[in-house]
Amino acid sequence: MDTPESTLQQSWQHNADAWIEAIRSGALASRVQVTDQAILLAIMGRQPERVLDLGCGEGWLLRALSDRGIDAVGVDGDAALVAAARAAGSSPVHVASYEALALAQVDIGRDYNVICANFALLHQDIIPLLTAMAPLLAPGGALVIQTLHPWVAATGDYQDGWREETFAGFPGQWQPMPWYMRTLSSWVNALDMAGFRLVGLQEPQHPQSAGPQSLLMTSELRGRQLGSG
Ligand SMILES: C[S@@+](CC[C@H](N)C(=O)[O-])C[C@H]1O[C@@H](n2cnc3c(N)ncnc32)[C@H](O)[C@@H]1O
What we know:
Blueprint: H1 4-24, H2 29-44, E1 50-54, H3 60-67, E2 71-76, H4 79-87, E3 93-95, H5 98-102, E4 112-118, H6 127-133, E5 137-147, H7 150-153, E6 161-165, E7 177-181, H8 184-193, E8 196-202, E9 215-221
Parallel strand pairs: 1-2, 1-4, 2-3, 4-5
Antiparallel strand pairs: 5-9, 6-7, 8-9
Helix pairs in contact: 1-4
Bound molecules: S-adenosylmethionine (SAM).
S-adenosylmethionine binds near residues 55 and 60.
């Protein structure tokens, strides 16, 4: 039986080529103008040596980090996107689903100063995945998540729940993608339940736009500063 999660992953198989073209041609104005720079600055602000990009897609962020001398490792569930990332020079990039990562079935390395997810946490139960990421962080490490801003995405229905992205206005042929919208408190609660506490919150915005382009959260492991992590 199809679940929203399985339809979500299938949509990436279908949309991989259109996504690669959209990202590499700079077709997504909010990314070019605001959100790419926002996540790069949030990561670079931690002065990391090693970064894991969770749901790295075709690998633009891996390349941007490598260009800045950072040891960047990617992981994504879609084989075509991973192949594109590798072909564009991003290495190493692992193929693994979040479900496999949550069960620690795949070795994707450890001692990361930052684990980031850029518009890549789209499924409902993110707690097992985030919990599994905790032991992969180096002491003092951070989780940096950029996501659709819930206030903008909610469009009048500010409740957790599945939504559908139709990619209307994107160039190319797209299959609609289910994605799970969570409110701000729901994000903070999910982080808390996975053992993280929020240490930074930003709402990157273009000066000429009415609302924020994203929500950008930086979290650290609770208890690490007490030497128990
Ligand atoms: C919107 S794209 C973002 C890609 C990249 N982070 C970027 O900034 O361009 C979402 C990515 O999440 C990945 N993804 C979604 N659900 C996944 C899952 N359950 N397991 C592994 N990867 C998943 C998709 O394959 C896709 O590459």
